[in-house]
Amino acid sequence: MSEHNIESTLHEDRHFPPHADFIKKTSITTEKLTALYKSAEIDNQAFWADQARTELDWQTPFKTTLDSSNAPFYRWFPDGKLNASYNCLDRQLAQNADKTAIIFEGDAGDVQHISYRELHTRVCTFANALKAQGISKGDRVIIYMPMIAEAVIAMQACARIGAIHSVVFGGFSASSLKDRIEDTTAKLVITADGGHRGGKIIQLKSTTDTALESGCDSVEKVIVFKRTGHDIAMQAGRDIWWSDAEQDQNAECEPVWVEATHPLFILYTSGSTGKPKGIQHSTGGYLLNAITSMRWVFDIQPSDVFWCTADVGWITGHSYVAYGPLATGATIVIFEGVPTYPDAGRFWDMCQRHQVSIFYTAPTAIRALMKAGADIPNSYDLSTLRLLGTVGEPINPEAWMWYHTVIGKEKCPVVDTWWQTETGAHMIAPVPSVTVTKPGSCTRALPGIDAALVNQEGIEITEANQGGYLVIRQPWPSMVQTVWGDDQRYKDSYWPYFDGKYYLAGDSARRDEEGYFWIMGRIDDVLNVSGHRLGTMEIESALVAHPRVAESAVVGKPHDIKGEAVVAFVVLNGDRPDGGIDEALTEELRTWVGEQIGAIAKPDEIRYSDNLPKTRSGKIMRRLLRNIAKGEEITQDTSTLENESILPQLEGKA
Ligand code: WT7
């Protein structure tokens, strides 16, 4: 852990009580919420057991609520059996079969409505197709798809037969895809010929081919959904079209009842060192908190049209596209494209046309759309909106206020939701019918979630506005189960301090006089670019893998829209370019990182120096590099530097 916490410089006094119109429609009253907090406080496990019995349909009811015998490998509802797909789809058939489950809109504006009955049929048919390809309970299936309804159908179909899916974001490169296939030893890849984004075709099948060429021996079959219809290669014996795989498959598929602890999915996320971690989630506990957060934070009601703009390649797209909203019988919007195509009115146009009532997006998108000006959203009818949400990184008060006034017309509460891939669902967030919100604060922990700030000794910080480590002191149902195939890494990453007593989130935060949480940022070397965690280490390894690069260090610096920009300091094999400028090489390295990891990780800036600043023990002085990248004055002791003349080089001044 670093020796210093970040000093908080943000002072924000504005308060926003829930609007009367919102309160009128809510199902969560102050009394109800108070009762929830109270019962969680009295007996946390009994509280979650009660929620699990109310919110989930069990094939075999659980008797044990929580098994802590192998802590920190906590196991919720271990002797209960259920099926996630059953809880999302079959439960709707009796009352809601004709209700729209999915409103899909393609990049080009093509729209499909899929009812719960139809979704059930399509999931069952595809689940049978998976079985016919030899997939059964516990097998790993990689999903590398555009943001289309079939991505959710593929996830639900895996869940239906107990196969463990691992969705890889469609923007990731062949080499990232390959790493994930190999780490999961997946038998099957589900992909598409391509997808549409901003008027362009995203190559998915050819990228899959590249990934499979260089290893991935576990893969037996590739199922390809035809989305774009452009020419792609199909390898005989290995590749099969989705529609052919579904041929003659039955439209009924009995769910495979799995233990609540059975892995529902693995999702990779960046850590500070080494390769991405395969975050393993359970079925029962995970689904429970996806549901409870839909109720408490999104106040979900039968008439809502719920739109979470996240891709299914991220945890947000798992909990608030593929599982939570369906398990609560909501109508969801799925959108293939980008917020700025064909213009910056796309989101608002879609909110108007599909009568969206709950809208959930990332600060990076809000900032980009804010830049485009208020005239654009003002030209649409946004009156169906009743609740707005944000996730992924701290939202600056200015963007929060814009969201609240320009989009929400001051009547929609804004829920700033703090959580992580590892937490599975919201942990700290407002309950919009009750909580008085403050721009930039995710407010309070939800019922049953014991979030706290501690110092390095693990002692709770009770003084207001003192920065500390954000920890969760009691296990919760949707918690990460382990790092796939690496129990030790799970322990080292999340339970390294305080005698393994507290879950360490890896964020620092402060609490104000009213106990509201204000997230300050990550404490490890992880960047948050457009709401996505990127390990600096991964970008550094990608750079060093280029033949011209000897050494590199990557840091973040604040960026108006993306939150953080990637700045890379590079030492070349051979001479430093004249004056530190070589535009062709810079472009080549950016493209290279794009190919190795994905476009999102491309350095915004590359600075060349003769060597990197290091401590006596040989550690790169990252804090110094961060200061330099931000253009701040250097206050650290630089006397240990072997060669002080690199300072102007790092500053881009020589
Ligand atoms: C990290 C988790 C959770 C889905 C999206 C990202 C940051 C997330 C907030 C928020 C301030 C936030 C944290 C966290 N973060 N939400 N509302 N306010 N920071 O998932 O990739 O697992 O990243 O994102 O730093 O630890 P993820």
Automatic annotation (TrEMBL):
AMP-binding enzyme C-terminal domain residues: 538-619
GO molecular function annotation: acetate-CoA ligase activity; AMP binding; ATP binding
BP-aspect Gene Ontology terms: acetyl-CoA biosynthetic process from acetate
Keywords: ATP-binding, Ligase, Nucleotide-binding
EC number assigned by the record: 6.2.1.1
Acetyl-coenzyme A synthetase N-terminal domain segment(s): 35-88
Residue ranges constituting the AMP-dependent synthetase/ligase domain according to the UniProt record: 89-476
GO cellular component terms attached to this protein's record: cytosol
One Pfam family in the UniProt entry: ACAS_N
Similarity remark: Belongs to the ATP-dependent AMP-binding enzyme family.
Protein name as annotated: acetate--CoA ligase
Organism: marine sediment metagenome
Upper taxonomic lineage: unclassified sequences, metagenomes, ecological metagenomes
